[in-house]
Design brief:
Helices cover 51% and strands 19% of the residues. The protein has 297 residues and is of the alpha+beta class. The chain has a five-stranded antiparallel beta sheet with strand order 4-3-2-1-5. A three-stranded antiparallel beta sheet has the order 6-8-7. A hairpin with an 8-residue loop joins β3 and β4.
Length: 297
């Protein structure tokens, strides 16, 4: 009789367990269908790319959360039966999925510590790019630089496992402070009036970069309320170095991180225009090489 009851209870458990598995699979299918339909509506109706991306992420997150709650509620009676099994395989899983677990931990750090967000420009190791997606296991970048000069896109999409957050430094070009100090060098011929060159460079830089002044000051004050930073001057600065071949002028200025190449181009164009107006008082210098052929008698 006892054997019969044991057999029956075992059969009953399997039957109930199988029914719950089928029920969970159906629930999962319906839930994924609803998520797909909602995300499709959001994709068609929401025009702003940033808002659309965040809405789709939130919808997916709550979809997974709802399914997890349903799953735990469905199998809560069987958790004791699974405890020993999970305990045995836990060690093996932890060892074989070290990278996956570290990537999930990295994702949590990225999300809750604000290392960066979608839209930021970052440099990780040797890779620079704009963050276009942050997944549970990896971060996706649209690469900048490499064989393309300055900060232009190469067109390559790079995916980096999130565990890099524990190994490499992360350089954020934007984040809380989306400005950079950039510098250009100008070689000028000896004999050119130094003070006039300094005045020319300062004036041109003020004209080209003045549009960043208000935003820079506002963001710098905002950053100063979060961390300890010293006050910085936004005014362009010119440094002078005397070399063996020419006088080298270093123009330092503030620029939006996305406009670095455009601003540098505009500066050079305006500087060359102003130098032409000096009618030879200011002359640019360059390296020259003279080859002399000796006659052998």
């Amino acid at each position: 009789m006892n054997n019969f009851l044991d057999t029956w209870m075992s059969y009953s458990f399997l039957e109930n367990f199988g029914g719950r598995v089928i029920s969970s699979m159906i629930t999962l299918g319906v839930l994924f269908l609803v998520i797909y339909l909602i995300r499709r509506v959001v994709s068609e109706k929401v025009q702003d790319k940033s808002v659309r991306y965040r809405l789709q992420k939130v919808i997916a997150f709550f979809g997974y959360l709802i399914f997890l709650i349903i799953l735990l509620s469905t199998f809560k009676k069987d958790m004791g039966n699974f405890a020993v099994f999970f305990g045995i395989i836990a060690g093996g899983i932890a060892f074989s999925l070290q990278t996956v677990i570290a990537s999930i931990a990295g994702w949590l750090v990225i999300i809750f510590s604000s290392f960066y967000k979608v839209g930021d420009r970052v440099k990780v190791g040797t890779i620079t790019g704009d963050v276009i997606d942050i997944g549970v296991l990896s971060t996706t970048l649209m690469e900048c630089g490499e064989w393309v000069r300055s900060d232009q896109y190469t067109g390559r999409v790079v995916r980096i496992a999130n565990n890099f957050i524990f190994k490499d430094a992360v350089y954020n070009y934007s984040g809380e402070f989306p400005f950079l100090w950039d510098e250009l060098k100008l070689p000028v011929h000896y004999g050119s009036p130094v003070n006039e060159v300094i005045e020319l460079l300062t004036r041109v830089a003020n004209e080209v970069t003045s549009k960043y002044t208000e935003s820079f000051e506002e963001r710098w004050k905002h950053l100063g309320r979060q961390v300890l930073v010293e006050d910085q001057s936004i005014s362009p600065m010119v440094g002078v170095i005397a070399t063996d071949n020419w006088i080298e002028f270093h123009l330092r200025y503030v620029v939006d991180y996305k406009q670095r190449r455009t601003t540098r181009t505009n500066l050079f164009i305006r500087i060359l225009e102003e130098i032409e107006k000096t009618e030879g008082r200011i002359r640019l210098s360059s390296s020259t090489m003279e080859i002399v052929k000796e006659s052998v008698y």
